[in-house]
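[Archive record]
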Amino acid sequence: MTSGGASRHCGTVREPHPIFRHEDDVLGPAATTEWQAFVTDSEGNTLGLVSFAREES
């Protein structure tokens, strides 16, 4: 039996960073900032992650 991903390299390719500010709801939720990050999974695939964060008022 193997430990799965524990013996394989996983890591961050690019740290989370803001890529776009949504003023309206044309491309995403209005009044949010779109964040993006990239990671590598246990099989060596690069995965893109996206998040929409509402700004505090």
Observations:
- The mean pLDDT is 86.
